[in-house]
Amino acid sequence: MSETSEILTDPDIGSPQKSPSPSSSEDENPSGVKDFLQRTAAWARSHPLSQQVKRDDSSSSSESDPGVRMKGRAALRRAVKERKAIEEMRRESMHGKLMQVLTSFWTRDQHPDWSVAAKDILRKHVDQIQDTCREAKRLKHTCEALVLLCAEDYQTRLKNKVDDVQKKQMWDDYKARALLQVPQQPRIVPYTGYDPKTAQTPRQRKVVKLPKSGERNQPPFTSRTRGAVGRLVLLDQGQLSPRGKYLQVCTQHGIRPALEPLMAGQSNNLSMANQNLTDHDVLALLPVIEDAQNLNAVNFSGNSRLSDQALIPLFRAFSTSAATLRHLSLQGVAMGPAAQQMLAELLMSRAGFVKLASLDLREVSLQRKGFQSLAQSIAQHRGLTDLNLSSTGFVPCGPDGKTCISLLMQCPQLSKLDLSWNCLDTPALLQLGQALSSRRALQHLNLAAAARRSSTDRDLPIEHFLELLAMNRALLQLDISMNHMDYRAALILEDALERTCIRTLSLKDNPLGQTGLRSILRLLCGKESGLCFLSMSGCYRGGAEKEAKIFNFVNPSGRYELDLTSPYDRSLLRMLYKKCERIGQAATSAFQEVSFKGPFHHPEKKDGRYQVPETGRLNFTFACDWRFNDEECWNYGRAIHLNWTSHRFFPRIHKTAQLLHQWRLATDDPETQTTILEVLGKDFVVSSALLREMCALQPDQLPAVLNKLMHCVNGGISSQYLAMMMAPTVKTYLRVVDSVKKLISWTPENPTGNYYLDLANPADFALSEQILVLNHWEIMIEENLGYVDSSQYGNRCHLRNMCYAGRKLPFQDVKQFILPMSDSFSFDYVSCKRPNGTEPTLDVDEFQKFLKSLARRNSLDTKLRLQVLRSVGWLLYLKAYQLRLLLGIFEDEFRSICAASLLFRVVDMQNEKIFRCAFDATQFSLLQKSVGYLACFPYIQPEQWTVDLDLTQYDQRRVVQCLWTLAEKERMDNLTQIVYLSAEKVQLNNADWVPPISWCSVENVPTSGHMKVTYRGGKDIMSWPTRKKLYEQFTHGQLQGSSADVNWWSSLKEAPKEVVQFLQLLLRRFKDFDQAFTFIDGVKGNGVINLKELTERVQRMGYKEFQGAAAVPLIQKVFRFLDPDNSGSISRKEWSTMSDLQKEVLQQLEEFAIFLHREFPFARDGKLQNVWPLIDRGGLGKMPRKRFKAALQEELGFFGAAGVLAEFLDVDQKGFVCAEDLLQLRRFTRGPRSHSFSELDPETIKREPTQRKGARRKSVI
């Protein structure tokens, strides 16, 4: 310790000073190297051996003893080493504590704060040591070096498994460097001859000037201060290794040494990434870089403070190892024009980077002037394989963009190119796409966020590039993330990559939406597609415009207006040609109504790609040709399978794993999973195995999976049923059924009815597609069989009243409508399938059971009953009388819906007037609008039929043709009460306008205006052949038998009220209407009744309603009704109209009687009075007619003609109905109907007179 005390008490410096207190600030801490050099110089100058050496040197060389000088110098060197050892011993305990804490941190085994940042942990432990050791803050730079050392040692141990000997040597080396660290920017003047601009280090002695004692702001490293030291003479650099030179420069400039294996000679790679280097740091490295002969990789990434002042000498220093350098990374370096030019020269020079394989210039702001020179140098380089120009502005929007891209793509060995985060315009991307078609080496291309987006251009620049990818055959990996790509770019991508060899595709953060994802998933699962790995996170948002042209893979039929200058429209046209090729249809038959400026020729296929025109506008209607079989033309279920199920996309088995992978990636995002399910439900056919696997991966998504994919399960109804059985609970099962109920309840054998479909629901969307397929199928049937067109607009379309999103479609043919993926689609469908009249119908008992199961008294909602009826309607064939009874169990507002679904299941449509009488004018008008006016036209019994027609619609003009044809054959005067309102708002009627006979042809009927007309007709003037011909022509069926086989009928609603009153009078007096005719005509009459005879005989009957002069106008109305031909007399055939009215009265009474017998067992066997308490809840004994009608509907659930029923049951015409009146209906509940209406029920006759209150007249019944 004597030497130690001697060192600490140097007399030249002065008296000892007090050590700084532990609480002294960090700014007062000494600088390690500076203080160490000062103390060492002062001690060496005051040492006796040093004085002896000076004296010996001052004497002449001839007198000096060389042995003494050598001993002095050796002693001085030993003293310096001893001094260093003593200083190191003073820190030994502190270093041990530091290394113990830092090692536990980097191994992360037992340290409690391992999750905190390394910098915070280091500061924390340094502060802890400061509390016990006052030198803690002075070791700041040393601690940082130790941390880096530990990290480097830890990583090296894990990766390279360095043995203990090598780690110890590395630790000793790094510890020695740490002792030489100084703060940045010291006051040190560089030695003479050192040029920082050229980084040249001449081999000469260096002199370091140290600051004087008065200029020092920090105390020395030890507790004692020394006097000023003038200068320190260091060793000659020629005696130092390159590492020593580097440490010398670091010492002179206050640079923290870099802890890299290259400095120790243990590696050929120099990695200085993310170290915030300055120009001085890089200049200090130049001796090491110059000495490195086999430099392999250099990485200066993340050092944004570097400039040309350091980069230019750095590039020159690479000259010794430029021939071996293979990897160069300058990410984020601020390269100026001079450095860029020098880099380009090194790339072009034979003595430069000839073997460079990887060049990383990410985030380097390249100057505009250096673009072309750098691109030219890259184009001439024959070894470059990896080029990263991300976020460099390398190809900006301008005329040089195309040139630079062309030069880049000329690099012969370039296999990986990154142009992401640039601003490429359309010409540059076009040049890139064209160059890819001829380049076979480029396999990896990154264009993430590289395409410019303009608010004025309709097409994205990236779309032009994607279209040209179809010609590429070498690219394996493509990244086009964040390029604002929507469904248009997705369709272009599907068209272009259908047969390419790209295996990895990244589409992250592009707003593709559902429409775009349909194209991408079809591409992923395509048979010829080589795509195996797909990244599309963030692509599930976005959508298509409502008016956008969308390609529907299953049924692309529709009207298209394409601008062939747009890449999307060209790809859409190519996809339509591929659809024709897939289904085996000739393009000439699929493309109809083609409109193009100039002659249009269908494109030829070259190298697997259709060469479509690139200019002009093309308008056409695309119609898919369906598989048609004459033998099975009426098997609609088979037609749906051949033309819808088989047209969907079947994913290949080896591609199913890709779908499951995408499904698994969206595990934590329910919205994304829903989008995937909706996309699969639009185009795909999935197997039950895939469905089970998806449910197994996500059990909580099972209801959503079944809801979205139930309709596209392969295998038909049985597979769908098995899929529904996967529902774990009844609640889940009911939820699934509710979402797909429209699809599973729909039967193609009886599709007629009204539809309201939500196109956002995959099941409803699939149903709409199947209906469109069925529409085309029936059009082909009609054309093959030569049926008359009965459509709404004369285009054979079976869809009527089409509305989308609550608005009427702007076109008339559904072939022009491309199904969107959202909003509602409502329409009425009318099938051309009709029964032939020989089908078996339900017998009486079965039909009554059927009615009872559908009755409202079973607490079933009316809409639910209609759904059930519609789902089983294809199994039923009914008679007109049965349909009349079926309509009686539904409210008035639902009768048109019920009749529309079962209208074409009636086997005797010649008797349609039986159920037509159950409608009022409003409901029958709704039925006409729903199923068409021709379907509701009374071809056999048109008497007293009134219709209001809109002549703008084709089927209503056909009605005019039928009416005029009937009137021409029977009598033109049958057309009465004609009111024609022309398009010019000119109203014409019978008084001043004669109906033109030319309207017997539909071509001559006006195509505008409105008309209301009534056809009277009559049995005397009826033309049976004409009626039969019209029936067979427009109903597509054969009418067997003659007019005698028709159940002639008349409606009370069509007859005037005077006729109804006259009917009641005859029913009270006569047994039948033949007897009444004989009474009026006389026993020896002439067989006809004139007005005078009718007036006299009616007044002789004695009824007050037809007495006096006031009754004459009433009788005249009755006479005109019974004399439709205006002949002035009524024949027996014309008089039979009263019998037809009688049938209607009987039918209404019988409906109510059968209803009571069916719904109320306690009212059977003639005990109808037991029902009265249910009707008369108040116990009044009698009820007014109006209240009686309301009670029948509300209390009993009878929706028949309650008004007529109350009127005919009120025999005394006092306006009340009582329980006794119900007993008149007994005869309808027992056996066949009697035709005698003048006799009371036998049970009523046997009643005691005291039970009959009042003198009541004979019952009408």
Task: Write up this protein.
The protein has 1261 residues and is an alpha/beta fold. Helix content is 43%, strand content 8%. The chain has 47 helices and 27 strands. The chain has a ten-stranded parallel β-sheet with strand order 3-4-5-6-7-8-9-10-11-12, with no helix packed on it. A four-stranded antiparallel β-sheet has the order 18-21-19-20, with helices on both faces. α15 (461-468) links the parallel β9 and β10. α6 packs antiparallel against α7 (164-178), α14 (426-438) runs parallel beside α15 and α16 runs parallel beside α17 (513-524). The longest helix has 42 residues, at 66-107.
Mean pLDDT: 77
Task: Give the overall form.
Answer: elongated
Oligomer: single chain
Could you give the count of β-strands?
27
- Secondary structure tally, helices: 47
Structural class: alpha/beta
Strand proportion, as a percent range, falls in: 5-15%
Radius of gyration: 51 Å
Query: Could you give the order of strands across the largest sheet?
Result: 3-4-5-6-7-8-9-10-11-12
Q: Low-confidence stretches at least 5 residues in length (pLDDT < 50)?
A: 1-34, 59-64, 132-141, 144-156, 176-238, 1231-1261
Which range best describes the helical content: under 10%, 10-25%, 25-40%, 40-55%, 55-70% or over 70%? 40-55%
Organism: Durusdinium trenchii
Biased composition (Basic residues): 70-79
Biased composition (Low complexity): 15-24
Keywords: Calcium
